[in-house]
Fold these 4 entries.
Entry 1:
Amino acid sequence: MDVFARLESEVRGYCRGWPTVFTTARGSRLTDENGRTFLDFFAGAGTLNYGHNDPALKQRLLDYLAADNIVHSLDMHTAAKRRFLERFDELVLKPRGLDYKVQFPGPAGNHSVEAALKLARKYTGRETVVSFTNAFHGMTLGALAVTGNSMKRTGAGVPLGHGVAMPYDNYLDGRTPDFLLFETMLDDSGSGLDKPAAVIVETVQGEGGINVASPEWLRGLADLCRRHGILLIVDDVQMGCGRTGPFFSFEEAGITPDIVCLSKSLSGYGLPFAVTLMRRDLDVWEPGEHNGTFRGFNPAFVTAVGALEDHWTGEGLEKQTLKKGQQIKQALDEIALEHAGAVADVRGRGLVWGMETRDPETAARICAEAFRRGLLMETSGPNDEVVKMLPPLTTTSEELTEGLELLGESVAAVRTAVPA
């Protein structure tokens, strides 16, 4: 462990909560170099929706590499890219009536967000982008400008401009009528709010504390944007690829965003891959106007096609995800009832859930106790007060039961150690 402390930057984070050296992984479990196995309720922050080292996806990848197929290609045409575009259109876009163009902006979610913000400003000729309280969209400067967390924003080291934050759904426990402030400011020439190029929103705020927007609120937001000529960007980087049930998290609300950001589990295997989807008429880029060295990572095209074909040719995965979500909710409600002095709220959708504790130290201690028991979880929220659960969608019901029992034991241990 000395080499990490000696050579790796102090910016490292997750390893501080999980002080061990991991070596192998399969499905919903990781093993460290001492042979100890951990149940994964983190899934690479939502990057491993189909679990670790899925055997079918791994075989596709091995076969592709063994045949000396193209790995790096910038934005050149390749057979692997063609296959991905064909299958993504056939299995994802057309069944949902979506007529999007696909941009490959770079390997990570923040690249997708940066491309979306840049495109919205180019298309509209306007500069301001509206985001929401407790939003998280990435760590690059443009994405940070529409992120709410003050610690992350301060890390930019420069002023973050051209972004305005509005209250997210239920930000004030229902005391602020939906969109009243936003629309009033839009209509008031003295409000100081320039007409935005776009609004960017997460349907479920992951890093912000598992805040779930209602379908009604999302429909209201989409309607407001349409009436005022503002582009609607949905950041589905963490909540897409089935995390909330359907492939896109906005499907439940019945809305069609103008631009969609997608990454994390898109490759299906944990390989870097991101796309920015845009309404066809929004594709006003000049050739090479927005590019990047690693925007055509062919191994990710290969595993992405495998994930689509193996998991999205029917409704099985969506139904199982929603069913498992109910299993988690029931268990969390029972934990919250038993430990009401420590747990303030339970919320989530599909297989993303948060258990809000009454103080941040409690959430951190619960995750530490869980690690000692062989369960990986992390905290989220503006003060890290929420215990966050993102198990792989392929986690079995039995594994969920095992993990939830470990969570209950961890909460009880914290409560015993620090009486209310």
Entry 2:
Amino acid sequence: MTAQKLWNKNFLLLWLGHAQSGIGNALYIVALSYLILDLTGSPKFTAITMAAAAAPYILSPLAGTIVDRIHMKRYLVIGDFVRGSLMLIICLFGAYGTLNVLMIVGVALLLGFVGLIYRPSFAVLLPRLVPQSDVGRANALNGLTGQISNLLGFSFGGVLVAWMGPISAIFINGVTFCMMAFLLMLIQFPNIHRKSSSNINVWAEVREGFQFLLSSKILFMIPIIFFFMNISYSPLEILMPLKMKALGKGPEGYGIFFAILFIGAIMVSAWISKFGKNLNTRLNTTIGLSVMALALGGVAASPNFFVCCVSSLVFGAGTSLVSTSNVTYVQTEVDESFRGRIFGIFGTVEQVGMPASLALIGFFVDIVKPEVILYTMTLLLVVVSSVWFVVNKQSANSKSLDLS
């Protein structure tokens, strides 16, 4: 099955599913924070719960290998029904007043294991549902809905939780999982002739995936880029309250900063979704990394709130450009039989990057000024951008030599 246009029935169903599920997930994060705070009186248990949900992603390369071996539809449908049921279990125990933090951590761990297959599955599925020239636009559209969902979910999540209570918001998230399962049932998954065989040891295929990743300098650079994207973004959540205080702003300034960051990402995703046919993924990654570095330096040096907000807008734009370009590159340039494994490896790198960076920032934040940390991350992005540029130039030169 080859899609003849971007907006076909299968992609539309997947896009709608992502949109409504993204809003539910944002509501869940807000509701979970308040629910755990109500139960324990300490925000540290929220961090423990998030860590429990992320821990299974160490097995993401294995999940990616499984994606390369199976017809994924039934597993995705069942998995979303399971995730929806887990949300409803929290609501049930909460309604009867028997919910405790250990149950929530246990559910988070189960959600992590069930969710392992989704990142590589959707990354592999999307280029099969749209024309190859429109893969970049399709990724941008998914990114656009995700960013808008986050903006709406986090902006209005607190209001909704205050009005309806955290249990009701978690119930809504459970419904969105069930809706996603229903929409997946309606999607016609293409039949693919896989090179992988059930006779081959699954761990051998995991190893084969790593070997394939290491066989290309450009491909090897992509998880490194994802890692440094995470360690440049996630610490902002810790450092921005300090920066806002220095600029004479409070929590409202913090909220405006991240809202503007999302708006920058939305703007770029919208642009790519409209004009990103045959997206030049390598060039746009170079531009995006450079823009991120410039913006992060701007945040560090900003003498006032206005400059800080402009830098936030530019940083959000850069992250969207890099993320969309990298994912599109793998979906269009990597052999189909390896995509699940490659995206599985990416999943581990992304999940490890965030807690690692938060732990480092937590250690240094009492020792050095926030600006020093931000300048350090700026320098790291400059280095990564420069290495990416050199690797791509070498690749282009080697192709020119081959042609001659």
Entry 3:
Amino acid sequence: MTAKITALCGAALLALSLAPLAHAQPASPATAPLSPADEARLRPIAPELREAALKAMGFSRMMGTINEEMVLASRKRGGGPPAPERLSDVPVAEQMIPGPDGGPQVKLYVVNARAGTSRPGILHTHGGGFILGTAATDIRRLQELARELDCVIVSVEYRLAPETDYKGSIEDNYAGLRWMYGNAAQLGLDRTRIAVSGESAGGGHAALLAITARDRGEIPILFQALVYPMLDDRTGGAVQVPPHIATVGWSASENQYGWRAFLRQQPGTAAVPARAVPARTANLAGLPPAFIEVGGVDLFVGEDIDYARRLNDAGVATELLVIPGAFHGFDQLAPDSPQARQFTRARVEALRRAFNGPRR
């Protein structure tokens, strides 16, 4: 399956979300001379990904510093990049469901439902640093995945920070999972084969959803597929990263802003509630088997490796893939690179094995 540029992360997502579309193109790598500083930023990046990295760097320059005014302005433009054309042969429906207690209704995108069947399913949560993005942007890519795995996918349009803190978005996603489980027959869903998955902040939300489902004991989760997940509020703040990490893509300062908005308090302190941060969850035992993948120079590489280790230590079967020289969101900006093909195929096959394997 060929990855599509449909769910851009880091600087690319920010640029397309916040900037007028007429101006959302950085200078061409062929015409923009490289400064010594830019050459140093590119040095850790795999050669096949450097052209895409230059594009990400151009977006980052165009955007400047993220702040609340910029983020809120993005809502007026739809909150994310333009959604690509959908496949005609994989059905998509929008569904409004009751929100969590006291909360507004939650919009779901239901991909590839087919009553009368019994197929696996994925509850998907989109990326965007907890502050940006929209589920609609990912629909084409989710259609492709649903067709390849012959599964049904439900993607949640959860509320974003800073308007809503972690409690609201966690409950929105759980409401989507509960609706999916309760409507298995009309979806053509086998309720014993539900995975959770997401990218970046969506990967963090998927990890939080797996933890929430385990703790509440109402809905069994078969598997979690976490794509460069955003798991630890301390990264880039209380915990600094090596200088060759995150030279391109989602940065330490962006990460700290996203967590601050999500938590509504300073990230990295002892006062941060453990239920809001997967990496702060003390007990990981009993969580569903996991697949975690990340680039070797992604800001999240350290926290993702550590989370995989802790899952494994807790007796949770965990597969970890680290792509050398790959930055955050590289698979979306360079979908035809060998690294992106490996990255995407590994995730698809991990889900396929989980769906076809023995039940927990």
Entry 4:
Amino acid sequence: MAEAAHESVKRQERAQQVALFRYQVICPALDPALSTRARGRIVRAIAARDHQGPFGGTHRYSRDTLDRWIRRYRADGFEGLKPSLRQAGSRIDVNVLELAVALKKENPDRTAAQVARILAASSGWSPSESTLLRLFHRRQLMLDAPGTGEVFSRYEADAPNQRWVGDALHGPKIGGRKVYLFAFLDDHTRLLVGYRFGFAEDTVRLAAALKPALSSRGIPGCCYVDNGAAYVDSWLLRACAEGVRWSV
């Protein structure tokens, strides 16, 4: 009984990790101000590049998959992005297949047998070697994948509150302690909408800078940040995914 309960908790945690990952992937295409054509361009660009998977490795997703995630998020919010919590059985767990693909892409020299052993060790179950081989052939992972390049251009939000840009800067020492500045700028107006100095670069100080900005300026269309630890904290990502507003 205890083992089954532990396995259930593990599956729920993995489902939330997958949902957060999917939200991060489709987030650029969720802006309601986008036209159908503009959203299509963004989704095609997302489908054309590699993504760091939630459990390691890199892999790509088709436009059909991305469109399905977007529809689910619009219909059911963050919960709609969670995969099924069904037990491994006659139907193969999609998350395990995604992990298998990520492991193969991470090291193309891995055989199906090696991937199967890794899956069995990490999740307690693995598809058969023949199933993995069919999967790798279907995803064209048995061949050398040609390199791809990305071209980026400068951009600016078209209106105030459409996009905020946030970052943390290392400041001087005060009283022998190093300080950090969290700041958010409106991308269109360059207005400093929120800021906060603190003695630590963490989510608590980030929230202290962002909360008054939201109270005085409203909710932006999106926030553009880097991959700093405070910005990729699972609590903050889930708050963004679920559209939670901070209370004053």
